[in-house]
Amino acid sequence: MEKRLCIFCDEKKTQNDFNKEHIIPDALGNESLIIDCVCKDCNSLLGSRIDVHLTDSFYLIGKRAKLNLKGKSGKVPYILTNATGMKTVENNRGVSLKYNKRKEQYDIRVHPKVIAEEDGRIRIIASTADEIINIANTRKIRKKGKGLSDKERLALIEEIEKNKKTNEKKENREGVAINIKLEYDLRKIELAFLKIAYELLYFISISSGDIINTEKLRNEETINKIREVLYLEMIGNEDAKDENYDNYWEVSIKTDRDMEEFINKDNVTRFEKEIEQILGNNNWHFINILNINKQKEILIIIRLLNIVTSIIVIKSIEIADGIPFSIPLIVDSTSKRCISLQADIITKLIPNLVVSKKRN
Ligand SMILES: [Zn+2]
């Protein structure tokens, strides 16, 4: 059987060893911007070691929950469960945040806590009587093989009522503060954006035939360095030192506030309105691959869910000559479809983006 190369492990594999790789992770709502030159092994590692840092990042997780965009587990993510130290100050109880679709707000859930006392008894701290009864019941099943008897249940309810009165008074006096500490690794989020950029170049190369020769792309030194860094990250090797790659690429992440320096806000609003009219929503990803100078550089703009933007400059790349001025794409996270936009629509709507980018 004919073998071909995987663009990450660089190994020759048979057709059956490959599957569909989502350039923008499917957890962000993408079913059509895909490539088929990534082997199954690499695909699964990319998801768990690289994509996840972006899809579950504080930039995007809130909007994912709001848009019901499910992850690999098939579940809509809890927001901030990855945040460390997200606990109530009083009693040190764990906290999670979940989007409440019906009320259109984020609900805070304070988890119950079980404390083992020295005399062998346990103390249960919870927000509702049902939670306490459930915990007591489950513990008894685990220990004795059967749950609480009616008599035990009644005794427990009585005790809860009694404690409630004293605790309520206490809580009103002291209040409950929630302590949140957010930790994230910006480098890992940047690598996830770099992965998208790397795959986009292969996507353009494969889908548009002659624009970029795939073989030439593969042989570019810069492209090989990107592959190397992503591969090392994927297999959990921490040897890659970022300073060695400064001459090959730059990745920066921009919030909307940062972007205001670059672009004319009115033009962007106009552009967003126009796209919103086409798609009927405002939850799309925007990509533009730009060749705006003659210095063998390619600029890739990736804006995800209309929230966070990354600007990636890929340097000293010979094939840049063959790339058109602008290749804009939109992926609609609702229909999960990809739409290619005419370059002149983009330049008309956001001319400043193209002109002012370079001087950074
Ligand atoms: Zn592979």
* Secondary-structure element series: EEEEHHEEEEEHHEHHHEHHEEEEEHH
Lateral arrangement of strands in the main beta sheet: 11-14-13-12-15-16
Task: Please give the domain count.
Answer: 2
Which word captures the global form?
elongated
Q: What does the largest sheet look like? A: 6 strands, antiparallel
Instruction: State the secondary-structure class.
Output: alpha+beta
Protein name: HNH endonuclease
InterPro entries: HNH_5
GO molecular function, one term: endonuclease activity
Pfam family, one: HNH_5
What does this structure look like?
- This is HNH endonuclease.
- Residues 6-58 form the HNH endonuclease domain.
- It comes from Keratinibaculum paraultunense.
- InterPro entries: HNH_5.
- Keywords: Endonuclease, Hydrolase, Nuclease.
- The chain is an alpha+beta fold and 360 residues long.
- The chain has two domains: 84-181, no CATH class; 185-356, no CATH class.
- It has eleven helices and 16 strands.
- It has helices at 40-55, 61-67, 129-144, 150-174, 186-207, 214-219, 221-234, 256-262, 265-279, 343-349, 351-356; strands at 3-5, 12-14, 18-22, 34-39, 84-88, 95-100, 105-110, 113-116, 122-125, 178-181, 249-254, 284-290, 298-304, 308-314, 326-332, 338-340.
- It has a six-stranded antiparallel β-sheet.
- β13 (298-304) and β14 (308-314) form a beta hairpin.
- The longest helix is centred in the middle third of the chain and has 25 residues, at 150-174.
- It is elongated, with a radius of gyration of 26 Å.
- It starts with a strand and ends with a helix.
- The relative contact order is 0.12.
- Zinc ion is lined by residues 6, 8-9, 11, 39, 41-42.
- Residues 6, 8-9, 11, 39, 41-42 line the site of zinc ion.
